[in-house]
């Protein structure tokens, strides 16, 4: 039963495209997390608002060099802000952490 | 007996008129809507009438007295996230309009006194996860009801006298698809037509026809591979995630009994496969019907009658969803003008959407070398994954024109339209559509707004011949205006600008005659109507739309600190 459930979850994850399977390995190094975050940034359409992969201001703010702490960014990604940013409640904590790792990896300039 | 009843009825109507200070209401039915252009006292449908003119035949306010125009009254809808973006409507001296979260209001057109308010319950958890939300761009009137869509996938009917809900129909699974309805519906002969959002999501963008009496769904037209012919234009089964939709109201041509609608772009917006789409390659091989197309549907059945795809395999997000269809009769020809987001204006024959002419409104275009007068794209610019090569792409994703409307004055014979001059740098990325558990944006690139190679970003109001594109005059703006404009029989053109200034121009010369500061940017509609034999101009205010969001990065102040949770309806009259 447990195996069946695991298989179902795996199928569901694969059906989700590149997002979920990319986060099967949550013990990734920072570099790996940032790479996964970059992939998720693209798949979830974050660049729609955060221009040049977060390197420039667009509809949303520039993310490179952001002064907010991780807890703030985590909460903003999870819950959004009415009228300014949607919440991504479907993302796991590991996924959000990878996005933060990606944002932190952008050179501040 | 008969005369007594008649007297009583007349007395009752006088009492009612006095009570509400408005004219006696007549039914809003097909015949009244189809002759709306002959009654300038009302503004019955999104563009004023099915002719799509955004023109008022009222001339009480005119070039000689517009200097005396002043605020008559205001109304604040509250909870105005991303500003008021809707087009108000007016019937028999009552003004109806919608705000964010599909709040709908009926107001005495002369005084602003609220007759009723309708505040729907929405799926707030869903709304908090939506990017293109919670603004609402308008309503429709018909059969004693006000119709409004919601971002959680419903179409609602409200009794136009009482403000009570008449019916509530769930049309789309927004929890799964993320998309819902922000555009105004269109009422046509007993059917309410409304199109879904969709171009940015891996969905299939439907347009619905709903019975105005009962709320029952009559038909659904799927803009992505919705016919066997269309499905063949999506290689590798990419119709499953092809975007599309029709997020602004189209119009109705009674002569051919056709609903004209503009469809949204395919997804992903940008294709990493270069020109391989012609041979089965890239993100979505093929021409991708019926995205970025103008389609004509039978209002009773939703069956496709004819169409023209403005940009086959749109690789630039220059969709056809702008719902502006302007009926022009000239030299015995029956024509239909439609702006494509690329900045090219398509002129069609109304009988079958065959192309009669194409002309460019803007100056900075390099996504093609040209679209010739037959509608053929010449010298397409395709992309590969990675940093875009060559000069910045022009226009930018924000469009050579945005979704708000221009205006056509049958009196001057000129079409007044805002054009935008801006470009973007871009990196195209090969992405996989995410549809589970909920559809996510499917963009295929990250981009940045930049000035055109020739200089700075700017916008311009042009007065042009709608058929040939010949320019009569032009007024420039340092930041492109994003609101609709209106032309009037008083030979005026009103432009609500992004800084918050409402301006009036001489329709014949472009000379500015009047302005007033509304205190916050404009990103919605403007109409004119009459109540108690007095002409009013009604404009909505508020900032924070998807294009306007770019103004902070592009221009700084006043946009950086402009509130994105405020806005109002402001109504002007002569002092």
What features would you highlight for this structure?
A: 109 residues; mainly alpha; 5 helices; 0% strand; B: mainly beta; 5-stranded mixed β-sheet; 4-stranded antiparallel β-sheet; 6 helices; 38 strands; 33% strand
Quick structural overview:
The complex is a heterodimer of chains A (109) and B (575). Chain A is mainly alpha-helical and 109 residues long.
Textual characterization of the structure:
The complex is a heterodimer of chains A (109) and B (575). Chain A is an all-alpha fold and 109 residues long. Chain A is built from 5 helices and no strands. Chain A has helices at residues 2-15, 30-43, 51-54, 70-79, 93-105. The longest helix of chain A is centred in the N-terminal third of the chain and has 14 residues, at 2-15. Mean pLDDT of chain A is 77; it is low at 1-29. Chain B is built from 6 helices and 38 strands. Chain B has a 5-stranded mixed beta sheet, with no helix packed on it. In chain B, a hairpin with a 4-residue loop joins strand 15 (251-253) and strand 16 (258-262). The termini of chain B are far apart. Chain B has 575 residues and is mainly beta. Residues 1-21 of chain B have low confidence and may be disordered. The A-B interface holds A 12, 15-19, 42-45, 47-53, 56-60, 62, 79-80, 82-84, 86-90 and B 81-82, 125, 128-131, 133-134, 200, 425, 427, 429, 431-438, 440-443, 445-449, 544, 546, 549-550, 552-553, 564-565.
